[in-house]
Amino acid sequence: MILAYQGHVRALDVFNQSMDELVAKAGEGQDDALFQALVIDPAALACPAVQTRIAKAALLKDESFFDKLTKALKKSKPRRPSEKYDPIRHLVGILDEIHALDNLTQTQVCEIFIDHLNLYPHDSEDAHAGLKKLIQEIRKQKR
């Protein structure tokens, strides 16, 4: 149980998605999610959705797919996002889940993250633009 939990936490840390989400997306045909799941835990090979995709690639002799599969299994891990923004990533995830972020203006978001919670540095050249870009990247990765 602990190992499974660690895999879920690592997937959230590295890809902002749980292993369940990655495997579900792999089942929907998203190869990137499949490779991300395998980077975190090669045991994902046992999932029927992953096995089906590998079988399809074998039938189609999809060499590009197998090259990427090999890299994922060799654990060519992507660079982990900066840890200093983990609290922002977690809060954005929560606010997205309850659809609260969509109801806030950019000014309100900046007040919350920068002024009230001190999660983003005040001293950057344009803190509002930097925070907006960071949140867009986090949300893009989630989708």
How many helices? The count is 8
| Order of H and E elements | HHHHHHHH
Largest pleated sheet: none
- Number of strand elements: 0
Average pLDDT figure = 87
Q: Which percent band covers the strand fraction?
A: under 5%
Key features of this structure:
143 residues; 67% helix
Overview of the structural elements:
This protein is an all-alpha fold. The chain has two domains: about 1-75, no CATH class; about 85-140, no CATH class. The chain has eight helices and no strands. Helix 2 (about 20-25) crosses helix 4, helix 3 (about 30-40) packs parallel to helix 5 and helix 6 (about 85-95) packs across helix 8 (about 125-140).
